[in-house]
Design a protein that fits this description.
heterodimer, A: about 110 residues, mainly beta, seven-stranded mixed β-sheet, four-stranded antiparallel β-sheet, about 0% helix, globular, B: about 110 residues, 13 strands
Amino acid sequence: DSGVTQTPKHLITATGQRVTLRCSPRSGDLSVYWYQQSLDQGLQFLIQYYNGEERAKGNILERFSAQQFPDLHSELNLSSLELGDSALYFCASSVQGLNEKLFFGSGTQLSVL
Amino acid sequence: GENVEQHPSTLSVQEGDSAVIKCTYSDSASNYFPWYKQELGKRPQLIIDIRSNVGEKKDQRIAVTLNKTAKHFSLHITETQPEDSAVYFCAASMTTDSWGKLQFGAGTQVVVTP
């Protein structure tokens, strides 16, 4: 167990819908990252937060948004869902967010039908 | 932005043999190179990492080498065992404005056959 908690584990929804994925980092970690893993594209970096502020952005679609709350948990919001958004979404956390070990959660498997 | 290429995409080895996975990166400013192992249905986990001021690092049966001039780094697994079967991801990161952004390679599926 990495100490990073992601909910829900599985999510099935329809195209056009909106979903929220939740992540609680390890105790003491200030930085949270979101990654998308699909079969044909490996692990794609989406976004990073540090202590409530956005710090780095990757290939995150405009339909997606995220935030980190004062208690350091993070949420990833996916809207106007398309079939191609079906993937495994990982959250990871680290202490400072400065080139250090990432601890991954178990992921949320999103299926858009 | 950084681009990381990883080869091969699949690797089959006999138990006891060595496995080598190679990655190249595009941005010469990258200075942190971790390797993650992901077993089937599980989360990625860090197995070893190297920073740009070091050319080689070893931890038991795994080692990583870095060639900054050529912009490539490699993972070496010796005396492979069935439990080494997994997908291995290399990654590269540079600190811009003091924040690292890991870019992962596409992964290598390693299968160790008894």
